[in-house]
Write a structure and sequence with these properties.
Length: 226
């Protein structure tokens, strides 16, 4: 939601604060999140990026989701508390749907220009989100590339429907102040990490450890090594 048509502050206007919102499950947070948060902050000329921990992604099953406090703690461990900030605000606002959270944030912080940040995998899926057109109508979208999702995202339904609102990457530093709808796909260095891969590695490691303990217990019971 922008007051000025061209989004350029008038001479003498106080510069509005610019905050990027990286909403996510953070189950757990990882270097891929930090990579996109830093990249987005720099290229979209943002004052801060909030790692906004979701109380529960409406499209993801609750099964396998770590408790909110644990996910928040993992995001806090990635943040520096100054430029990259982990926040529980979405849970505090009592919303789970992004359109509802953004409506509340725009109301609570009228002096802030928010940019909704997401990896290409989320743009690929955006047309399944509740009121996704309203999200794009009122909040600028900054899309970060992600291995194996870029082609699908750009060929997807949301990118197609919003094609008139796409801005070139060279306008990235002005995205936060742009008249909405506006979105940018940022070509940039990519990071292949995912929470899914981390969870799989962790459960493989604990299965391995369990097998080792099991083998050691069996050999102790059988009196081996005496
Ligand atoms: N490596 C990455 N590159 C680009 N974007 C990423 C990357 N990792 C996470 N993101 C983005 O960060 C936001 C939060 O992601 P999320 O917490 O779901 O992590 P994830 O690794 O995608 O998790 P999962 O594998 O469990 O789906 C999303 O917009 C997602 O697209
Ligand atoms: O509002 C929706 O319908 C909606 C559907 C899917 C995902 N989201 C949001 O998208 C963000 C990324 O989610 P995730 O689980 O991929 O990290 C997070 O803030 C979710 O709440 C939102």
């Amino acid at each position: 939601m922008r007051g000025q048509r061209d989004g350029v502050p008038k001479h003498g206007d106080k510069r509005r604060m610019r905050i990027g919102l990286l909403g996510g499950s953070f189950n757990p947070a990882h270097d891929g999140h930090l990579h996109v948060a830093k990249l987005a902050r720099r290229r979209f000329a943002l004052d801060q990026v909030w790692l906004m921990v979701s109380p529960g992604n409406p499209l993801k099953p609750a099964h396998g989701m770590a408790p909110f406090a644990e996910r928040l703690a993992s995001a806090q461990a990635m943040a520096d508390g100054r430029r990259i900030v982990a926040t529980a605000i979405e849970a505090k606002l009592g919303s789970r749907y992004t359109w509802a959270t953004l409506t509340k944030l725009h109301r609570l912080f009228p002096g802030v220009d928010f940019v909704w940040l997401m990896g290409a995998d989320n743009l690929e899926d955006l047309a399944r989100w509740q009121r996704w057109r309203s999200i794009a109508a009122h909040t600028a979208l900054g899309v970060l590339p992600r291995p194996e999702h870029n082609m699908g995202a750009m060929a997807g339904r949301a990118a197609h429907r919003l094609r008139h609102a796409r801005r070139p990457a060279r306008a990235a530093s002005r995205l936060a102040a742009a008249q909405t709808p506006a979105w940018i796909f940022l070509p940039a260095a990519q990071n292949a990490l995912s929470a899914t891969a981390l969870r799989a590695a962790k459960s493989a490691a604990s299965a391995n450890e369990a097998a080792t303990i099991d083998a050691a217990t069996r050999s102790a019971i059988n009196g081996e090594g005496q």
